[in-house]
Design goal:
Helix content is 29%, strand content 26%. With 274 residues, the chain is of the alpha/beta class. The longest helix is centred in the N-terminal third of the chain and has 12 residues, at 14-25. The protein is globular and about 60 Å long.
């Protein structure tokens, strides 16, 4: 019979996978790490991985800026704020960049299969976490403290943006950032077989469906994806820690530029300081 795990990760997304590898980096053996999830989450729209814990063939993804970075910010937030477009295109100094990225749809089955101890459990409450913390060296949680979530939602820093996904015959990997007022969407990601079109967070579903139908996209899928305002105040490292429980991931740290692979380094750093 296996010994009790030493670290439990709670979450079923990319951050949980990277947190597992952070535990390995910190010296834990795979069987000493447990992953508990309510469900395995699939990101809405197109998502790329900037780092992979195992060797894997990359894809060349080209990002293109239409118009200006400030125009992109205005289209998305009705205001000019530093955004991912300002960083990626160096405040408009360049209008395209090609990166080597990885596809979650290719990697996730393999990566989840490399975690030996994982289980689906009901949604956990405070009592469950309190009990778990007493049994483990550490608990790594990939979602927000409920009060921190409520505070940022009330302040307007946490919202959702609509995504319209439709089938396509293309074979490219291209991300278009829209800084033109004449185009109603904000960002469009083209991958083989799919086009994922993101709209500003206050755009109504009726307006999106009308526009997409008018341009011939009548059989697409409409979803909502979480997003953070560029001015969202991050959670300090100390406030992400609750005893031996630590929170990782964009929507636990509330850092707009946080990428899932950063959960690996954060986890390893936290465990090293225990």
């Amino acid at each position: 019979m296996q010994d009790e795990p030493k670290v439990t990760i709670v979450g079923g997304g990319l951050s949980a996978i990277y947190a597992f590898w952070g535990c390995i980096d910190a010296g834990y053996k795979p069987h000493q790490v447990q992953v508990l999830h309510n469900t395995i989450s699939t990101p809405a729209g197109a998502v790329f991985m900037y780092s992979t814990p195992i060797p894997w063939p990359h894809k060349k993804v080209t990002s293109v800026l239409l118009g200006t970075c400030d125009g992109y910010s205005e289209n998305q937030w009705d205001d000019i704020r530093p955004t991912s477009a300002h960083k990626r295109f160096r405040d408009g100094a360049i209008n395209s960049v090609t990166e080597k990225l990885y596809l979650p749809e290719e990697l996730l089955i393999t990566l989840w299969g490399m975690i030996p101890r994982k289980a689906e459990v009901p949604m956990m409450n405070d009592s469950d976490f309190h009990s778990l913390k007493k049994k483990r060296d550490a608990v790594i949680c990939t979602f927000s403290n409920p009060q921190q979530m409520q505070d940022r939602r009330t302040q307007g820093f946490l919202s959702s943006f609509p995504v319209y996904s439709n089938r396509s015959d293309n074979q490219d990997y291209v991300v278009l950032y829209n800084g033109l007022k004449s185009v109603p969407w904000v960002r469009q990601t083209v991958t083989p077989g799919w086009i994922h079109t993101e709209y500003a967070h206050l755009t109504s579903q009726e307006a999106i469906l009308r526009y997409e139908h008018d341009r011939g996209n009548r059989n697409g899928k409409f979803t909502m994806a979480p997003d953070l305002h560029p001015d969202c105040p991050p959670v300090d490292w100390a406030d992400r820690r609750e005893g031996n429980l630590f929170r990782v991931g964009r929507f636990a740290c509330y850092i707009p530029g946080y990428l899932s692979h950063q959960a690996r380094g954060d986890t390893a750093k936290f465990l090293a300081k225990l």
